[in-house]
Known about the structure:
The radius of gyration is 13 Å and the shape is globular. A hairpin with a 4-residue loop joins strand 7 (67-72) and strand 8. The protein is 0% helix and 51% strand. It has 123 residues and is mainly beta.
Amino acid sequence: QVQLVESGGGSVQAGGSLRLACVASGDTRSSNCMGWFRQAPGKEREGVAVLEGDGSTSYANSVKGRFTISKDNAKNTLYLQMNGLKPEDTAMYYCATGDSWYCGFFTRKYNAWGQGTEVTVSS
């Protein structure tokens, strides 16, 4: 079983940057795909960025060119660098892992979730 703990959220002004981190512990051998999701108040959870088992990445159209997903295997840590933040990026951000090689933004393919870290962007 994998445990995930996110950090790095906070309050920033529009145009600012944040870097989220997600530390994985436990049996991480089965964590092939890793992703970041977010959920704004009153909205459904949506995929933001995914790092697939083969190292390929995918991004939601709304964050392309602004967010970057990466991983430090030595630290078992997944990152999400967020630049050019906009008020519409305000949400609770969650990291998740799955044992499939390719997960995309299909939440059912992820079997471990963190507790989330809150991001607030003011205009």
